[in-house]
Amino acid sequence: MLRLVLLGFLFCDVKGALFYDSYHGVPITIEDVKRHDKTNTTFWCVTEIEPCDPLEGRRVDGSCNNLKNPPRGASHTPFTRILPAIYDKDFEPKKTLSGNEMPLARLLRTRLISVGKVPSQRYTQLAIHAFVFLSGDVVSLHDTVNYILWRPYCCMEKGKSDPYCVPNKIPEDDPVHRFSGIRCLNMTRPESFQSIGCIPKGTTPERIISSTPLIDLSVVYGNYIKNLQEKGRLFKGGLLKFEVDNGRIWPPSSKTTANVCFLNQRPHETRCHDMPEDGGNTLGSINLMAVWFWRNHNFIATELAKVNPCWNDEKLFATARDINIAVFIQMNYYELLPVFLGYENLVKDGVIVPNGGFRDIYNEKVLPQVSLEYPFALRWLHTVQEGSLKMYDKDGHYLKQFPIVNLTLRTGFFGVDNNMDYITQGSFRQGSANIDYIADPDMTEQGLGPHQRVSDLMTNDMAKNRYFGFQPYVKYREVCFGKPVRSFGDLRGIIDPERIEVLREMYERVEDMDLLAGIWTERPIRGGFVPPTFYCLVIDQLRRNIIADRHWYERPNRPNAFNALQLAEIRKITIARILCDVGDTVTKIQPRAFLKAGINNKIDSCNKIPQIDYRAWKDVSCERPLYWNQYKPI
Question: Fewer CB atoms inside 10 A, N or C side of the chain?
């Protein structure tokens, strides 16, 4: 017992918090923390955690999700990998098996992905907004901010002497830039535990992010309890802070010019959300959905207060947050993902359950981490991203359109000229780009809008495929499906013949193929609409989320678990219902709003969209006994 007390004293500060090495997840001493303070690496390299309580709910910072490994699940938790990394010497991108340089990333993109505008007749733009937001919940955009704000010079002379600059070369015969004179696309190396200074250089680079790895609406609630308390909570009625402007409800707006909304067109555009994290001010899709789920928290808290007038602020806030996270996961797992990956596929692979009841497959031996392959695979969705946001009025009349790439770090646009209303209406009326081998020109030439003169998101995706050290496509194909691919001929039936021919021209051997090149060119999975290897890498993480999250909403044994009646109410939620509750001017919508409206999915009154009955959370202790008045004080 004395040894345990001494150990606790050694690793705790005076308040009782423990310090952990963020990469290794092991306790460190106060002296270790001081060394990080001197090198200004404490934020990234040190995780400070209050002692765990097995009976408490989900923490804002993600810590203590795994009681045996408290820092896993918090910010700066390292990624796991499906396959070990592979690099050339000095951790530069791998070469071909023969030792030659790999094909240029831009050349591969222009040969494998055509450019054009082909609208989907199946999916709405809302579905792509949701996918981007889902990805944004578990990754952070500081790598992108790094090269658009802090190192915009990588294609200039200055970039040649900066080791973090890794720009992408544009070939002389590029179909777009052969006459423009532009021969370079700006990009930087991914930030890693090594580049930040958490662990020595000379070891395999491991990417570092500031988000929590599990699905917890960290874009809304942040990753640090102090930030949530200072910027998020109203401390009244369980609500988040909010502003009302022209009848619309917003997260609070920053009162200073020191914010991340660099593209706001001042003085007309001034709104920049002052949220616990800056994630709600980044990409247009994330911004839009962050506002909806911010409002949804307050909608839930208000409904709970009606049912339980005796609940205090803390009880209302914690329960509303728990429900908000649960409906977010339910919406993604049971509505968004099935229409892309296939409902029967997800049931067969254990991602969703058809009976609607509880399930508990938690395993504390599986750490709450994100595989690096998962958010990378989601980059395939750049091929399905429509470049223009089409805007409609509440009666479905088309008004105008605007490039979504021009909304990066430009929150103010949503707050002027009724744009929020029109974009909300357009989200479920406009089709996404079609699922094919064609990308919108804004994704391939203007990906970051005015932040860069030229930016090809998909070329950067291919380059990052290599800087992340992913093994060749055929290795992932074998892990996923068991059958080895030893020649281009073995790709028949997996990839269309004309694309196999292009791959044969681009790569010396099939073993050289980049992971992303295979995902770009595969035929869709049976029963779904996504590439099979994309499906494999994504469901690996979807299952991990369920197994590794002690607070998974379908668990009957988690702290503060839902009862059967409450879980049944959560099962009712759809994105259509959420927009009916919190979307601007939404009074009618199609029931399956990730799919375009049609004969079997007609736009109709919100009154016909099922809603949660919050009486399932009724607390009988809030009811006064019938004989209460008999005992009034005299």
Answer: C
Sign, CA torsion 255/259/264/267:
positive
| pLDDT for position 631 | 37
Both tokens of 243, joined, read: 């502003």
Total residue length of the chain:
634
Q: Which two tokens stand for residue 324?
A: 């908000």
CA 302, CA 97: separation in Å to the nearest integer? 61
- Compute the distance between CA of residue 255 and CA of residue 54 in angstroms, rounded to an integer: 39
User: What gap in Å lies between CA 30 and CA 15, rounded to an integer?
Assistant: 13
State pLDDT tens for residues 193-208: 998 999 988 888 899 8
Q: Report the distance separating Cα 407 and Cα 431, nearest Å.
A: 19
DSSP 52: P
User: Measuring CA to CA, how many Å separate 419 from each of 125, 339, 584, 593?
Assistant: 16, 28, 10, 20
**Can you spell out the DSSP letters for 146-194?**
IIIII-TTTTSGGGGG-TTB-PEEPPTT-TTTTTT---EE--BPPPBHH
CA 534 to CA 364: how far, in whole Å?
A: 27
Question: Does the predicted model carry a pTM greater than 0.85?
Answer: yes
Query: Tens digits of per-residue pLDDT, 523-551?
Result: 999 999 999 999 999 999 999 999 999 99
CA distance 211 to 279: 9
Q: What angle is formed at CA 138 by the lines to CA 552 and CA 576, rounded to 5 degrees?
A: 70
* Packed helices 575-582 and 313-331: angle between N→C axes, nearest 10 degrees: 140
282: nearest Cα among 255, 254, 262, 256: 262
Give DSSP secondary structure letters for 54-117. Answer: TTS---TT-TTSSTTSTTBTBTTPPPB-SS-----GGGPPP--TTSPPPPPHHHHHHHHSEE--
394 in Cβ contact with 587 (< 8 Å): yes
Tokens of 192: 């890693």
Q: What are phi and psi of 452, to 5 degrees?
A: -135, 145
